[in-house]
Amino acid sequence: MRKSLKSVLFLMMLVVFALVAAGCNSDASGGGSSSAVDVGIVLPTKDEPRWVQDEQRFKDALADSDYSTEILFSQGSSAKEKENVDALLNKGIKVLIITPHDGPAAAAAVEAAKAEDVTIIAYDRLITDTDAVDYYVTFDSLAVGAAQAQYLVDNAEGTDIPLYLYAGASSDNNAFLFFQGAWEVLQPKIADGTFKVANSSEAEALKDTKDLSREQLSQIIGQVTTNWDPNESKNKAQTHLTSVGDDMKGDVAVLAPNDGTARSIADVFASDGAVSSYLITGQDAEKASIQYIIDEKQSMTVFKDVRSLVTDAMGMAVEVLDGNTPETTGTYDNGSVEVEAKQTPVIVVDQENVKAELIDSEYYEASEFTGLE
Ligand code: BGC
């Protein structure tokens, strides 16, 4: 009898301990110590500065929020992404803000959330082939690609200029938009002999077609994808430069899809003795690329002010939580439905305006760079 009373007491203590421990673990980054989370945020990977920056900008914006939030990273894995969404659903989220690692693969995760009446906001990358997406906050991705291409057109001199094309991951809908935007500007200049494509037989075969179908875009992207991976970019660039003759070197132009891949590709082109100069694009205004631009190792970047995207996403989430309908500016076709979207413009940055756009706007501090005039 005494013994069983002791074990009952012991069990009760265990239960109390477990409850206290559970309460401690569920502390959300933007809220108090309750286990409920209002807004779940899932970002694709910590391995790229772009997304670490989004995390920081979310934290800055959430400091004074009344709603509790939690940010999780998927580390480039759709399985981890689904686990993250499930974990947030268990915490009772009402709104999910998510940048999919892989656009179509994320459908299962958001469908699970939708089944629990959660409002889904796709953040920067669209989730495709599902009707379980309510809103999309994004930059103007066609304009990103067009700005990159226009920079090459405006700054390349002469004709018959070797053009190296690189693209993002084909699992990312944005990679299609960036490339499409770029192609619409580059294609007439390939057709008229200003540029000659150096590294893609698929692009070469389509050089008279301005409006590419998704399938045609896929063919080119499949050949010149970087998978958003700096190492893959480096290897591809090395292979390309090894397999061309000197007629594809000299003064060249390179369409690189973002800053992480641009720096890798630029290093390869810089170390080839037969390349006398290269123009190379980028996007994201990553700090390392701003330094590359100051040092004349990267020609430009497309600045996407993440503060605006975070403000739009959280603004939408709060509208939903308050029972209102968020404002949108257009729609995006995700292959299944027209998703209501809010779009933010982008800014081209090169040596000329880097200080005005990034330092004077207080996006970065001058002390983070060297050689800035
Ligand atoms: C984003 C870019 C980013 C890339 C790689 C794209 O979806 O729009 O800003 O550089 O993914 O992460």
Question: Explain this structure to me?
Answer:
The protein is built from 13 helices and 13 strands. It has 373 residues and is α/β, with parallel strands linked by helices. A 7-stranded mixed beta sheet has the order 2-1-3-4-5-12-11, with helices on both faces. Strands 7-6-8-9 form a 4-stranded parallel beta sheet, sandwiched between helices. Strands 10-13 form a two-stranded antiparallel ribbon. Helix 2 packs across helix 12, helix 3 packs parallel to helix 4 and helix 5 packs parallel to helix 6. The protein starts with a helix and ends in a 14-residue tail after the last helix. Bound molecules: beta-D-glucopyranose. The site of beta-D-glucopyranose has 11 residues, from loops.
Write out key terms for the chains shown:
single chain, 373 residues, alpha/beta, four-stranded parallel beta sheet, 45% helix, binds beta-D-glucopyranose
